[in-house]
Amino acid sequence: MHKKVQAILLVLFMVAASAVVSGDAATIKSITVSIDRSGYVTGSEVISFDGDNGTVLLPAGSQIVSVLSSGIQAPYSTEERGNATALTVLQAEGKSVVVNYTSKVLTSKHGSEWTLKMYSATTKYNTIVKLDLPEKTDIISWEPTTLFTPMEHGIWLYPETEEFDLELKYRLNDDIIIKPPEPGLLEKFLLYVKENAGVIVITFLATFVLAGIWYTINKRRKGYVTKDALSEMIDEKISEKTKGPTQPEKEKEDSAAEKPEGTGSKKVKESVMNVLEDNERLVVEMIINARYDVTQSDISNETGLPKATLSDIMSRLERRNVIEREIDGRRKWVRLKNWVFE
Length: 342
What we know:
Elements: H1 2-18, E1 21-23, E2 26-35, E3 41-49, E4 54-59, E5 63-69, E6 72-73, E7 76-81, E8 84-89, E9 96-103, E10 107-110, E11 113-121, E12 128-132, E13 137-143, E14 147-151, E15 154-158, E16 163-172, H2 185-195, H3 197-222, H4 227-243, H5 247-258, H6 270-274, H7 278-289, E17 294-295, H8 296-303, H9 307-319, E18 323-328, E19 331-336
Parallel strand pairs: 2-12
Antiparallel strand pairs: 1-4, 2-3, 3-9, 4-8, 5-6, 5-9, 7-8, 10-11, 11-16, 12-15, 13-16, 14-15, 17-19, 18-19
């Protein structure tokens, strides 16, 4: 009898351990996993709960960055369960929850070959998995085999089961060539100066003489400033200071006052900055350092990023709920979300 009870308990434990989603029903819409060249993983999942709360299984060793419900941090708890991290979200009824996490234990390297091993709950024929890999990466193999679509620097996967236990092998091509400055460039410049020293000196002297002649002629045309005229100019300046700013200056101050205030001296959480890519971090730092709110055009001009690249970056940051964009006529104002600040 005792052995039968043990067997029943063992079966119940196996069922509980293999459950993809516990609590109220949930739909896992998408999973995005990004891997950098050091094997560091950042993940984001979009989940929709049907009830008040629910539990989903994330990859093992996941460090939660944020759990957002309608842009607001939702209460949650985590628990390690074998090869997965169980995340329980509370008060998420009828809302789409975005979970952002990081992990340093999902990848390993043997020689030149990298291996990604991750377990995650999925919704059959519904979940879309996006794997972003470093540039110039060769995918060797992955299991289980499933429907897929290749993309630049990664792959789209379409799981056909409720559990997605992925093992993907890939290799980095470290043949990215960074060209050094052209050798002898300084020497060539110095040689040119030496060979053409006479011409350079004559050109400089001629320019100096012509500038002196122009200054003399212009001075004679305008005449000298007399002592009385100088005194009158000083009195006018003192009068302007006493009366306050002139109309153009006042309009300029009013215009500056109407411009939206920026983030000022606020500081973004280090956990958020760590999960951003270089270009994403460049955009966020530009917004932080701006005195006023900036537009997408301002960011393009300041960073020098191509419009297409910047648009893709802005979409990713907006999808991760790091920024928000507000369209005002032809302007697109860009602001950081409040939750990212310390």
